[in-house]
């Protein structure tokens, strides 16, 4: 019963997930990274997702990674 409840309910203390699906932690961490302006950190936080949740987040992750790649390319041009 507890395992079933953990899949349905997330209990957080601030940004720390105390009870809930493992994906909850990764998503809360990614949200925090975005709030502090760290897009790369948010993308990295999604590494903790299970395969099903990762599939759902794949379109967002691809767009975020494209933005990071574009920023890196622009920075490279500016430094050359």
Protein described:
It is a single chain. The chain has about 80 residues and is mainly alpha-helical. It is about 70% helix and about 10% strand. It has a two-stranded antiparallel ribbon with strand order 1-2. Helix 2 (about 20-35) runs antiparallel to helix 3 (about 40-45). The radius of gyration is 16 Å and the shape is elongated. The model has no long low-confidence stretch (mean pLDDT about 85).
User: What's the Cα radius of gyration?
Assistant: 16 Å
Roughly how much helix do the residues carry, as a percent range?
over 70%
**Shape designation:** elongated
Task: Kindly report the spatial arrangement of strands forming the biggest sheet.
Answer: 1-2
The sequence of SSEs as H and E is: HEEHHH
Low-confidence stretches: none
Mean pLDDT: 83
Give a short summary of the structure.
This protein is mostly helical and 80 residues long.
Topology:
Elements: H1 2-8, E1 11-13, E2 16-19, H2 22-35, H3 39-45, H4 51-79
Antiparallel strand pairs: 1-2
What are the key terms here?
single chain; 80 residues; mainly alpha; two-stranded antiparallel sheet; 4 helices; 71% helix; elongated
């Amino acid at each position: 019963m507890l395992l079933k409840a953990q899949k349905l309910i997330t209990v957080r203390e601030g940004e720390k997930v105390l009870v809930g699906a493992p994906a909850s932690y990764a998503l809360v961490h990614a949200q925090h990274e975005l709030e502090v302006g760290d897009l790369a950190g948010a993308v990295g936080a999604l590494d903790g997702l299970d395969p099903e949740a990762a599939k759902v987040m794949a379109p967002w992750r691809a767009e975020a990674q494209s933005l990071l790649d574009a920023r890196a390319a622009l920075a490279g041009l500016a430094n050359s």
